[in-house]
Design goal:
alpha/beta; Aspartate Aminotransferase, domain 2; three-stranded antiparallel β-sheet; 15% strand
């Protein structure tokens, strides 16, 4: 087996050969001037991806989880109160991270398949007359359920309550795939990673931090060393890292940003919508339903799809991998065994998505799912034919 089948998980995503080649570089001196020539422009170009002019971009050798730990440890103190809604596995994990750091986490429980409840945030913040809540934490794209939340509405909720809470947003599976507007939406810290829309290996936590959030670091007393904003920013000003950087990944990120620039960021968003809509047409043709409750919540990065009652989604994804050597996302948390996920973000084309739909259809037919073989593929084909790139 040559091992070149695409993967359809929500990350890590497929890596273009040009990016793999860009990362195939010999070790060099990260304190030499030629590293600065690559690294400084990368930090500046990332601002375009976050759609910010004033925020400071920071890269840590880590995953998105490390980016969240950096956001919390640099701006919070033990006992600080934060407000967060739980509506999927990844919002749940941020809750767990905050609790482990000794924060006072106020949780709004939401049905999985819904998004961030801006109206409930507003109600709670209006009651917080003493501004005890230091930050509102939101997952922009909930990877477990395929739900995209309205970040602008959350900022409006904070502002309508006349509250000074910071807004932290996990955009790990949305950045460079769906529109994200840090400045316009008033985001104070945005956290992403290298392995999804940026089409690289996992290994980089990528953040954009507002001046207001940086000011909070002066009073925060949670310990941080590896994830220190101050250490990293001061080293970056000198053109380097406070420790050894992941050189190969930074070369890859430089190349990835050039690919996105050449395609055009808005065209990247349009491509992701097209790919996602083709998948949604297939789901409709199968007679299945998405976990996302309403179309305004549909993610353009990932579709989480309920299997019919009486079927086990884990058996489906395992069978697809064992027989056809293609990976799809398993159901997580409340979705376990009930839903599978199709990742349609990163370096994908219509043709690649159609191959994934054909493969999952074969697996469903093998397991006697109530579908007509080819129905989903045909629906997606018609959509792609009539809605060209």
């Amino acid at each position: 087996m040559i091992g070149q089948n695409p993967i359809f998980i929500p990350g890590p995503t497929n890596i273009p050969d040009s990016l793999r080649n860009a990362m195939n570089v010999q070790s060099t001196d990260h304190r030499a001037p030629d590293f600065v020539e690559i690294f400084a422009p990368v930090l500046e170009k990332l601002k375009d991806i976050f759609k910010t002019k004033d925020a400071t971009t920071i890269i840590f050798p880590s995953s998105g989880t490390g980016g969240w730990e950096a956001a919390i440890s640099n701006t919070m103190s033990v006992g600080d109160k934060v407000l967060i809604a739980r509506y999927g596995m990844f919002s749940h994990r941020w809750i767990d991270l905050c609790q482990r750091h000794g924060l006072d986490v106020e949780i709004i429980e939401c049905e999985w398949g819904t998004g961030a409840p801006a109206h409930l945030f507003a109600q709670r913040l209006e009651k917080d007359k003493n501004n005890e809540i230091k930050a509102v934490l939101v997952t922009h794209n909930e990877t477990a359920t395929g739900v995209r939340s309205d970040i602008k509405a959350v900022r409006e909720a904070i502002d309508s309550a006349n509250h000074d809470a910071l807004l932290y947003v996990d955009c790990v599976s949305s950045l460079a795939s769906m529109d994200f507007r840090m400045d316009e939406w008033g985001v104070d810290i945005a956290i992403s990673g290298s392995q999804k829309g940026l089409m690289l290996n996992s290994g980089l936590a990528i953040l954009a931090v507002s001046e207001k959030a940086l000011a909070r670091t002066k009073r925060a007393n949670l310990p941080r060393t590896f994830f220190s904003f101050d250490d990293m920013i001061n080293a970056n000003k000198m053109g380097g890292f406070p420790y050894t950087p992941p050189l190969q990944l930074i070369h890859g990120l430089n190349a990835a940003l050039k690919i996105i620039e050449n395609e055009g960021l808005e065209n990247v968003f349009r491509r992701h919508f097209r790919l996602a809509q083709g998948v949604r047409e297939a789901v409709k043709a199968w007679g299945f339903r998405l976990c996302a409750k309403t179309p305004d919540l549909y993610s353009d990065s990932i579709s989480a799809i309920y299997v019919p009652e009486g079927f086990d989604s884990d058996e489906l994804t395992n069978h697809t991998y064992d027989k056809y050597q293609v990976s799809f996302g398993v159901g997580l948390g409340e979705m376990a065994k009930k839903a599978f996920r199709i990742g349609h973000l990163g370096a994908l084309t219509d043709v690649m998505v159609l191959s994934g739909l054909a493969t999952i259809e074969m697996a469903m037919a093998d397991l006697n799912y109530p579908i007509e073989l080819g129905s989903g593929v045909s629906a997606a084909q018609q959509y792609y034919r009539n809605n060209s790139a």
